[in-house]
């Protein structure tokens, strides 16, 4: 990159190892492979889940243009990502605004949003779609989410695929009020946080389920002027990235960060975080012990060797990873703004239509 975010300090002990600018894809480090922040200002829908505006000028089927503040991605009618395969890693999808329709080759389906988290272990192979239906035909349909790819160690790359939902109202949160009464709210998607309720269980074969993984996925929201101490990671050698993406300015220990950035932090000690700006501040934190194995990647397949990548491609051509049980490549789950999950075996879980505020 040509320039780095400005990070200033007033002491010799520096928590920020490296600062990198935030682009369309955010920088990650082992055990994470990928972190995308989708923030789309979709217009009103046309009654058939598509934008009620012309799509002229977009490269339909591969539209990442952000024209008018949004993209169709790989959708040709409904925005999103029609059926596509994965092998060898996990996807963790945190939704901040809007609704996502999930369908997969296991027969699982879900509509989720507003703070919900979907966690999919691709393992030996899964095909899924992630569509963004525009349900509101009279108002805009904003969508905002993080999609994070978490690697699997070699011994777990060929486990059975697994689908789970972490519903917003069940995800633990820690609310800390500093001496001046200014609040910091930490949402604990994965990884124990002192003072917070116990985290929900990740999928059983996840690196996040292994005690040695020391994986944490947290989001932070800080009032103007708020202070909160980020506790040290448990594991020696754990790596930690703090993504500062909303707010004016942040102080980490003695270092001031004046623009949005991905901040690699020294993970082995506590650091006082201060929102030094005049508006609320938000961060995403990813941490974990490196898996420290070779990574071979080709698109949606992440293995350890090129031979395994070739095997993945051949297996997908031959088996389609179990086939696609849906009539379309881009299924949409009805017109109601409901939240639900149907798990393999047809067990269905219904949640309140509106997720509580505070995701």
TrEMBL record:
Residues annotated as transmembrane: none
Source taxon at top rank: Bacteria
Binding-site positions, Fe cation: 84, 86, 128, 130
InterPro entries for the chain: Pirin (IPR012093), Pirin_C_dom (IPR008778), Pirin_N_dom (IPR003829), RmlC-like_jellyroll (IPR014710), RmlC_Cupin_sf (IPR011051)
Species of origin: Acidovorax delafieldii (Pseudomonas delafieldii)
Annotated ranges, domain Pirin C-terminal: 218-322
This protein's name: Redox-sensitive bicupin YhaK (Pirin superfamily)
Cofactor annotation comment: Binds 1 Fe cation per subunit.
Amino acid composition bias (Basic and acidic residues), ranges on this chain: 330-339
Family in the record: Belongs to the pirin family.
